[in-house]
Amino acid sequence: MRLLNKPNRLMLKGICYASIFLIVMLFSSPAWAQEAAPQDNASPQAVPGLDMSEATIAKGKELFVGRCQSCHAVTEQVVIGPGLKGVLERRELPWLLKWIRNSQALIQSGDPIAVQVYNEYNQTQMTSFLDLSDDDIKAILAYVKSAENQQQQAAAEVTAQTGGSEAAQASSGINQSYLVAILIGLVIVLVLVLAVLLLIVSLLTRFLKSQNLPEEDLEVVNEKIDLTAPFRSKAFLTMVGVFFLLVVAKAGIDSLMDVGVQTGYAPTQPIAFSHKLHAGKYQIDCQYCHTGVRKGKSANIPSANICMNCHGEIKRGSPEIQKIYAAIEKNEPIKWVRVHNLQDFVYFNHAQHVQVGQIECQQCHGEVEKMEVVQQRSPLTMGWCIDCHRKTVVKAEGNDYYDRLLQFHKNNAGKKPMTVEDIGGLECSKCHY
Ligand code: HEC
Ligand code: HEC
Ligand code: HEC
Ligand code: HEC
Ligand code: HEC
Ligand code: HEC
Fold it and tell me: What is the whole-number distance in angstroms between the Cα of residue 301 and the centre of ligand 4?
């Protein structure tokens, strides 16, 4: 017994196409919308004798990165010297000033703590910093303290929100996939309900027909079946056809748009260099190696000499480190494989974004400090650039260069914040040669 007559089958097909269309539309929504990373405005705890203003901390950070970071981390981690976390609690400020300026002098004067620390670290000599003023050293210590406060805050946040920061970052994505799942579920339920309804209609019609109904009643029954006639019509079939074509076209266009988009690209590098180890565990600042980020267009990949600042001593025997030595001996650069690569007709400048725009590396590159191997996390498409320029408010406060622009914007746009779009961030010539 055939339960579904032709019109009903046609209608079912129509519904199927419609739901396929819906599902494809849902899945194919472009993923270039970037969530802005939350800014941490940790207001540091006060420490007697130290100026904890942002300017001082910034100066301290610069000094620390340049002078101390090759041997010290701001965590408990021992690099060559002890981790400096908690150093302000375990030592007096005047002692620290003397030690950092000239540790050898302090040791020779017989200071018991100095002698003890020196022996504890196998009498490794710490460099003397005779050129640093008290204020310089205090700035470094202020930075160490502020980094400590930030770590505490981060740890508190991680425990507060179960799942930690990674989950928080991914949450927008998770929400979206939940939504998609729910919608698909709804569509499936709808299709099922419709199918059941059609079955019932079909069965009922059959049943009524099999009864010996009077002439007029039969007419009514037959009329009902005719209600499905519109679905047999040419117009309906054309609609279904057009729907189907649209689906195919959308899928085609999307796959074309994806040509050259390399999100997730993570090539194997010639040396097993790990950001997770260097930038994560040992907290080496990105700029220590990527020296160009605040100065110019390119971030720079560090030369082998920068590696040697540390690996002249650390892990000399490791085969991976031997590759650095080999490169230096042959006077050849290490052949790192490029991960991020914009097309030649696009102009992108790191300093503009990192120094002027105050955007964190992670907003564009993801959490590099957690990556064993660097992976491209953003699509680097035009839509991605434009999307951020539309959304991001320019950090104009305290920047004289923007004062007049900001005033102009206030006069013209009222309360709306000034985004990158408002300073010309959507002009073709800004990004295209
Ligand atoms: C060449 C490596 C090196 C550099 C560069 C270096 N240190 Fe040290 N530092 C050490 C070592 C090693 C020790 C452990 C004591 C020793 O062996 O002399 C130490 C000890 C210390 C201590 C004492 C820690 C404690 O627990 O008492 C402080 C504070 C310190 N360094 C601060 C600094 C600061 C600030 C700078 C940058 C201006 C700096 N160091 C640069 C190697 C270094
Ligand atoms: C000790 C030096 C060092 C530090 C510190 C460091 N990097 Fe790197 N970085 C490298 C080297 C070497 C490469 C090239 C090899 C590779 O891709 O792993 C690289 C590659 C990269 C790349 C990919 C470049 C490309 O080819 O497109 C990005 C992005 C990057 N680093 C970001 C960061 C960020 C963000 C930080 C700070 C959280 C950081 N790096 C800290 C040495 C460093
Ligand atoms: C500021 C110091 C510092 C700099 C600069 C640095 N490293 Fe390292 N590196 C370390 C420390 C510390 C370790 C961990 C050593 C250990 O595990 O005992 C390490 C470990 C490594 C290892 C793992 C070695 C092994 O066999 O376990 C590799 C590979 C490496 N570094 C490559 C590089 C390269 C390439 C560069 C230059 C782009 C570089 N490092 C720059 C401090 C540094
Ligand atoms: C606004 C987004 C954005 C920010 C912020 C950003 N980058 Fe990049 N980065 C890019 C793009 C886009 C490229 C590819 C550039 C190209 O191909 O010309 C790139 C390339 C790189 C490269 C490869 C070498 C080069 O210069 O082309 C490194 C290394 C790098 N970035 C490191 C960093 C570090 C470290 C930071 C933080 C201090 C950072 N980036 C901040 C977008 C960004
Ligand atoms: C995460 C957000 C973000 C992304 C992604 C981003 N930008 Fe920007 N961009 C900014 C901000 C913020 C500024 C404004 C900096 C300032 O204050 O001048 C800016 C400014 C610029 C400017 C200067 C505009 C002007 O009018 O002065 C250019 C050019 C530019 N970006 C190019 C790019 C390109 C090309 C890409 C993609 C490869 C890109 N940006 C991706 C945030 C972003
Ligand atoms: C904020 C930076 C930015 C601005 C503003 C911008 N573009 Fe682009 N554009 C890009 C980037 C990045 C790409 C490379 C996309 C890729 O490789 O997938 C690109 C690619 C293109 C392409 C090549 C498309 C392709 O798939 O290869 C054309 C054409 C183009 N842009 C035209 C324009 C025009 C016209 C304007 C002005 C209305 C404009 N762009 C403004 C960043 C920008």
Answer: 10
